[in-house]
Write a structure and sequence with these properties.
About 30% of the residues lie in helices and about 20% in strands. Strands 11, 12, 13, 14, 15, 16 and 17 form a seven-stranded mixed beta sheet that branches. The chain has a four-stranded mixed beta sheet with strand order 1-10-9-8. α12 links the parallel β14 and β15.
């Protein structure tokens, strides 16, 4: 009996010790991910969350410099062929070994004509197997940014894809689902345990991860909490211990709490407005937005400083161009904001033949960017003051996304962080370029400027960095001169954690890399 009691006591102590050493990070997010398939939509947040489960051939480190991940080394065989040596001894979460076949299946899947993420590999042509741990990636020509692109191309298990009839990509925008929408099998530091969409997703530590973990987490509880007030209350009460989207209006309250730590900086995501450039407005009739003077008038009517002070609580950074200062291709000259001048705006409308304004749709979401709903409401009010008649349409992204992607809006809000490329070529190719092949995937307005396309295409084949950036700055100047987009600001980025979170590195790309986190 005594020996039994001693054994039971030792077992209980062991269990208590194990429980005490288990570290759970409870993440209260402002929204859910779209899918468990990282190829399902070009949404940075979804891809970022899934990067804790899936991995690429390369990745960004703490300093946002590229380092090896599933590939250990690479070299250029020719201007258009890159050879990658793959990491041996890596297994997927289901135990299958990682080999060249998985890279081939993944690249073919993400580059498929139906893939929403095909634009993230703009120069990709083909991939071939050299041996089980070597692949050659063939490009359409000389291209300088392949490694940057590959940081966000997650690698799937080829056998798992075949077994589950998941070789083809899914598409959130077109409501196309598949096995990978609701299941996951990567090589990353955390394993999917369970998922309840819009309720909770649980990840647990991958004990067999190939890398040496810097984190000490054993479990991540990811809970979407769409209400900002509820999110803040959950953090203050200790129900969650990490919030990556802290409302700027609540920062003073949180800073006053001894149980909360605030991490704050400006995001590299630029928030801007895009415009329909089709011959007709969505509601019918000739489209005034094709007139440069109208676009200039709409820009001059927006008081950017007022938006910053009133709506963004002084936390944003007013922008004059579509990329942040941290992004290659930015220049101080380009970044001079357009001056607010309501009288000039009215005069421009009159010169364009619209003295009484015109009616148009203005579509925004209420669960994407910092204070997006309030920003759009304020801009609609500013436009009304010069005689314009915006029909403001605000709703959740699940409702608004099909309108954006199908061009069913005249003016729309959009944010771009140049991820994963972290280079101005990203926005020039994906948004500003005409919609052709892998280019212009997010050109929702449907514009086409052949001279701009030529600059972007030339930059994409220029291996000399300075020459490439000069071409990109010329293209950005054209974007500015033509008011192709109306830049607003780089939004504030505020994370908050409980006092027991010891290390939560905050990155300029607003991507929580949980394999660095310690509690």
């Amino acid at each position: 009996m005594t020996r039994t009691r001693i054994f039971a006591g030792a077992l209980a102590a062991c269990l208590l010790s194990t429980a005490a050493s288990a570290e759970t990070l409870r993440w209260g997010a402002n929204r859910d991910i779209f899918s468990l398939d990282p190829y399902s939509y070009g949404d940075s947040f979804t891809i970022n969350v899934l990067n804790n489960v899936y991995e690429g051939l390369v990745r960004y480190n703490r300093d946002l410099k590229i380092e090896p991940a599933l590939a250990t080394s690479w070299e250029t065989v020719s201007d258009s062929v890159w050879r990658f040596k793959l990491r041996e001894g890596v297994t997927f979460h289901n135990g299958n070994p990682f080999t060249a076949d998985d890279v081939i299946a993944s690249l073919k899947r993400v580059s498929d004509e139906t893939s929403p993420l095909k634009g993230n590999l703009p120069a990709y042509k083909d991939v071939t197997k050299v041996d089980d741990y070597t692949v050659d990636i063939e490009l359409t020509g000389a291209y300088p940014l392949l490694l940057n692109d590959l940081t966000n191309i997650h690698i799937f298990d080829a056998e798992w894809l075949v077994e589950n009839n998941a070789e083809k990509p899914t598409d959130v925008g077109s409501n196309i689902e598949g096995y990978a929408t609701h299941n996951a099998n990567g090589t990353g530091p955390f394993v999917l345990e369970s998922r309840q969409p819009d309720a909770r997703t649980i990840f647990v530590v991958n004990e067999d991860w190939w890398d040496e973990p810097q984190h000490n987490l054993t479990r991540i509880e990811f809970t979407p909490i769409t209400s900002a007030a509820t999110r803040v209350a959950a953090l203050l009460s200790g129900e969650v211990d990490f919030v990556d989207d802290t409302p700027v209006q609540d920062l003073p309250r949180l800073e006053a709490s001894p149980d909360v730590k605030i991490l704050e900086r400006t995001d590299i995501r630029s928030i801007m407005l895009g415009m329909n450039r089709q011959p007709e407005l969505v509601g019918g009739g000739e489209n005034p937005l094709n007139d440069l003077k109208v676009r200039q008038a709409m820009q001059a009517a927006i008081d950017l400083d007022l938006l910053k002070e009133r709506v963004m609580r002084g936390k944003s950074r007013v922008a004059g161009t579509v990329v942040a200062p941290e992004i290659p291709g930015w220049s101080e000259e380009l970044d001079a904001p357009a001056a607010y001048d309501a009288e000039k705006a009215k005069a421009l409308l009159e010169e364009a033949g619209y003295p009484n304004g015109f009616e148009f749709s203005f579509v925004c979401a209420n669960d994407r960017y910092v204070n997006e709903e309030q920003v759009c409401q304020a801009i609609a009010s500013m436009w009304a003051r010069i005689g314009l008649k915006p029909k403001l349409d605000i709703g959740p992204r699940s409702v608004q996304t099909p309108k954006f992607t199908s061009g069913k809006t005249d003016v729309y809000s959009i944010g771009w962080a140049t991820e994963p490329m972290l280079d101005s070529y990203s926005i020039l190719l994906q948004i500003m370029h005409s919609k052709t092949g892998t280019a212009g995937v997010f050109n929702w307005g449907g514009w086409s400027y052949p001279e701009l396309d030529a600059l972007v295409d030339q930059a994409g084949n220029e291996l000399d960095r300075e020459k490439r950036l000069d071409l990109q700055m010329q293209a950005l100047q054209m974007v500015k001169d033509e008011v192709l987009m109306i830049p607003l600001h780089q939004q504030p980025m505020a994370w908050a954690t409980g006092a027991d979170v010891e290390d939560m590195p905050q990155f300029a790309d607003n991507k929580p890399r949980l394999w660095y986190v310690r509690k």
